[in-house]
Amino acid sequence: MADAARTTGTDGNDRPGPTMTASVGRPADTDAATAPGPVPAGALPRVLIAADKFKGSLTAVQVAEHVTAGLRRAVPGLTVEALPVADGGDGTVEAALAAGFERRQKHVSGPLGAPVDASYALRGETAVVEMAEASGLRHLPEGVRAPLTATTYGTGELLRAALDAGARRIVLGVGGSATTDGGAGMLAALGARFLAADGQPLTPGGGPLAGLVTADFSGLDPRLAQTVVTLASDVDNPLTGPTGAAAVYAPQKGADEGDVAELETALAHYAWILEQAVGPQAAEYARAPGAGAAGGLGYGALVGLGARFRPGIEVMLEVLGFEAALDRADLVITGEGSLDEQTLHGKAPAGVATAARARGLEVIAVCGRLALPPESLGRAGIRRAYALTDLDPDPTRCMTEAASLLERTAERIARDFLS
C-alpha cells in the first residue's frame, strides 16, 4: 500500500459542445458515429472525472472509463472529460501519461538490487518520477519484506535517466516504498558517497546507516543544481521520532519492534553525519514536513537534491492541467478506493474538491468504501458520495467486481444529477 496518510474560465458559450467519446487527459473528441443519439448543444452539463485509483481493483484510468460508461448508459451523448489524478504515490506516472506525457522506460536496480523495468513520464523539460516504480513494495517477491536492507538506488537511477533525457523540472512522487534508507541509495546513484569506518561504501539499506562515518556530496550530478525538484507526497512526517519514517511506516514494510528501533537509531545517526557534511540545515530538514516520506527518501531529496516539499495532489493537479479542465466543466466527479479521515488530509479527492469548489463547481465522489459522515464531506467540498458497498455490502465482491459496480453507481449519479 502507499505510505499511510499524514499525521499531521471561459463562460458557457465558449465551451465545447457535447461530444460522444471520452478522452483521457484532454477534452473529449466528437465522434458522431458512436453517438447513441443526437444531443442539442448546451442541453447537458459537461462532466469532468478526476478520480484516483481504487487500490487493488482499478487504476485511475479504469475508474474514469467505467464511470464514463455508466454515465453514458444513463445519458447518451453526454460530454465527459477524463483526467485521472494521483497524489504522488502509486499511479502518479500513469496519471501523467494519461494527461499526454510520454512514457520513458529504464532498467534500474530494484529494492533488493535485482534489475527491474521502471517508467517515468516526460513532457518537454518536465519529468514525473514515481519512486515506487523503482523502489516500491510491488517489486518484492510475494511474502518477502526487507525493512533493513531495501534500497532506493533504483530511484536515483531513474532520476539520472530523466536528467539524461533533458528534464530540468522533476516532480518526484513518493509512496508505496519498500525502503527505509533515508534516500541514501538514491543519492549514491546520483554520485554521493556514503562510507564506513574502513573507507568502503556502506552496504545498501537503512540498517547499515548506523555504521556511516563519512558522507561526501562533492560528486553529486552537477545537473541537479540547474534542476527544480519537487517532492510530491501526501504525508508530512519528519524523519525521526514517534511520527517519523521508522516508527510509522517501517512496520508496513515488514519491520518488527526491534527493526523499528534499529532503523530509528540508524536514521538519527545518518542525519547527524549529514549535518557534519553539509551544515546545520541538514538537522532542520530532518524535522521538516515530508522528510519521513517513503522511508526517509524525502529527507534525502531535501538535503541532497535541493527539493521543495509540496502536497502531492496540489503538484499533480498543476502538472496535469486541472485548472484548464475545470474551465470546461459543469460538474466534477472525483473519488478513490476508501473515503475516510485520511482523505481529508492531502489525498486526491480532497484536493480536487477544494480546487473545484473554489471555482463554484459541484463535486460528487465515488468510492469503494465510505467512512465519512455527510458533514465532513460537505466541509471538504463534496456534495455527495456514492460507495460501491451501497450496492453490494460484501467487501470482497466490491474489490473483484468493482468495474461493473462502478458503472451502476455512475448510472445512479446520472439519474440524480444529470436528469
The SSE order reads EEHEHEEEHHEHEEEHHHHEHHEHEHEHH
Radius of gyration: 22 Å
**Mean of the pLDDT scores?**
90
Q: Uncertain segments of ≥5 residues (pLDDT<50)?
A: 1-41
Helix content estimate: 25-40%
Beta-strand proportion? 15-25%
Work out the oligomeric state of the chains in this entry: single chain
| Molecular shape | elongated
Structural class, by secondary structure, is alpha/beta
CATH fold description of the largest domain: Glycerate kinase, domain 2
Arrangement of strands in the largest sheet: 1-3-2-12-13-14
Question: What are the defining features of this structure?
Answer:
419 residues, alpha/beta, Rossmann fold, Glycerate kinase, domain 2, six-stranded mixed beta sheet, 15 helices, 14 strands, 17% strand, disordered N terminus
